[in-house]
Amino acid sequence: AGYALLAVRPTEEVQLLLETSLPAKKKKVLLGVGDPKIGAAIQEELGYPCQTGGVVAELLRGIRLHFHSLIKGLTAQAASKAQLGLGHSYSRAKVKFNVNRVDNMIIQSISLLDQLDKDINTFSMRVREWYGYHFPELIKIVSDNYTYCRLAKLIGNRKELSEESLEALEEVVMDSAKAQAILDASRSSMGMDISPIDLINIESFSSRVISLSEYRKGLQEYLRSKMNQVAPSLSALIGEVVGARLISHAGSLTNLAKYPASTVQILGAEKALFRALKTRGNTPKYGLIFHSTFIGRAAAKNKGRISRYLANKCTIASRIDCFSGGAAGASPLG
């Protein structure tokens, strides 16, 4: 029953019921149907004229209210259970209906990726500030947050660094000159001394940031593989991350495919658009697609033109991914 409701067409049981219950001359019958789509399907396939809304809705409401008294042997409790079962069946069918186009996984992944970026950046700044009291020179030598956290965990107390630690430092920074600079800086550092308990807390927090960074890398790989399954054309055109952000902002791949190119072009810049309309200023030329390499490489005077062209191609790519059975043979770039 759940699948039949999703398919929006009369089942064999419904067809048999109508053919046996209604007169052969179909023009003399006016069938009241609650759902307009099902009514249109019955009229198209079986030829019975259907009416929806108005009086029909009131009649159906009355039938639902007194249904258990109209059918012999049916109790109110049994009717309630049947309705609940149908609701569960419909919901289960709807979830299964979307199993091949799991763009909701992409939406969750890109949202988590953005949140992780913010959290890792905040936590890394905290590690830099915290460990910087003990070894301030390290901040200037190492700019990458992930590498800095690994070094903070590896070095610990800077006074314990020696020539024997040089190989381990090189393994982390991948640069012998930089490793030597860290060793030299540790010998003449202006940082304060640190107690063992403080050092344990810093190392523990650094480990958490390192594990978050490594999880983020794994999540990005998962997002890449998922985008190549669900939206390969869009991924090939503007990349997995920008494509995932477009899908997330639209709500689903189907919604994105239904948008015109002009909407895709400014997707993500709604505030700027409404502000421009309110003040009668210039409307934005691009939204989320600005992060694409095509617009980044374009000259300032050509950015608007390239964004419009790219939005057209994104629309084509998303429609290919959404409505075609498999991956497209031709590139959306034409």
Topology of this structure?
Elements: H1 2-7, H2 12-21, E1 31-32, H3 36-46, E2 50-51, H4 55-65, H5 67-70, H6 76-97, H7 103-132, H8 137-141, H9 145-155, H10 166-173, H11 176-187, H12 196-230, H13 232-238, H14 240-250, H15 253-258, H16 261-265, H17 270-279, H18 293-297, H19 303-323
Parallel strand pairs: 1-2
Helix pairs in contact: 7-9, 7-12, 7-14, 9-10, 9-12, 10-11, 12-13, 12-14, 13-14, 13-19
How are the strands ordered across the major sheet? 1-2
Nearest-integer average pLDDT? 86
Shape: elongated
H and E string: HHEHEHHHHHHHHHHHHHHHH
CATH topology of the largest domain: Helix Hairpins
Considering the chains and any ligands shown, give keywords for the structure.
334 residues, 3 domains, 69% helix, Helix Hairpins, disordered C terminus, mainly alpha
What's this, in brief?
Keywords: Nucleus, Ribosome biogenesis. With 334 residues, the chain is mainly alpha-helical. 69% of the residues lie in helices and 1% in strands.
